[in-house]
Amino acid sequence: MPTAADLLAIMPFPDIDPIAFSIGPLAIHWYGLAYVAGIMLGWAYARRIAANDSLWPGDVSPISKTQLDDFIVWAALGVVLGGRLGYIFFYDLPAVLRTPVRALEIWNGGMSFHGGLTGMTIAMILFARRNAIPVWSLFDIVAAVVPFGLFFGRIANFINGELWGRLTNVPWAVVFPTGGPFARHPSQLYEAGLEGIVLLLVLAAFVYGMRALKSPGFITGVFVCGYALSRIFVEFFREPDAQLGYLLSTNWLTMGMVLSSPMILLGLWAMLRARRQAALQL
Q: Whole-prediction pTM value?
């Protein structure tokens, strides 16, 4: 009688076409649908948070549903442009400098979370100033919903058979079509679980259980810290980008770790700053 581990060990990689469906010559990819799903679910959740005045300082929400509706376009542009530019500068600059048209080839590498975060931050600052919204409160409401996008994005990475993990013999290892005839960690699913589900639940506990939105900037700090810790942990199981490999002649340090480490300090600073500001207003 085979054990559960035996059954998992022989499970083949799900042969899912990266193209979800086609409309004439237009091919709709799962990756694009993941972005749409993340943005739409995040928007719906953000509207619910914004409508609950009791969660905010002074029991008054600083942002209206209409403003959130307008912000979707800004958020999408910030994430997509920042994510692509971030990938180019952090992971693929030499290749793009040799062949500039490669910058438009999103199938050659795709997006960078850290670049998307930077693009989103710039979009939030500009939108908040234009609409007279407290910038830290806008940061907080966006931080509370970002895990939706992270979850669906990592699931799309798994479907595409990209960003797979290091070699392993664990029972749940997967042989990816693009990863050679080797069993690997399904690190995309690890990230989907930690950066998506776990981080979403942690943030929701702070938003609803601890009323942390009343200290503008605290939820942002929790998200930044939580993402960084999750990403650094998963990097120990994830194969580094082929064009970079391991850094500083090590067999463990990756660009993802380097980019995520300062985020821990930034997140801690945001949380401490939020608590200090809240204490001064008492």
A: 0.85
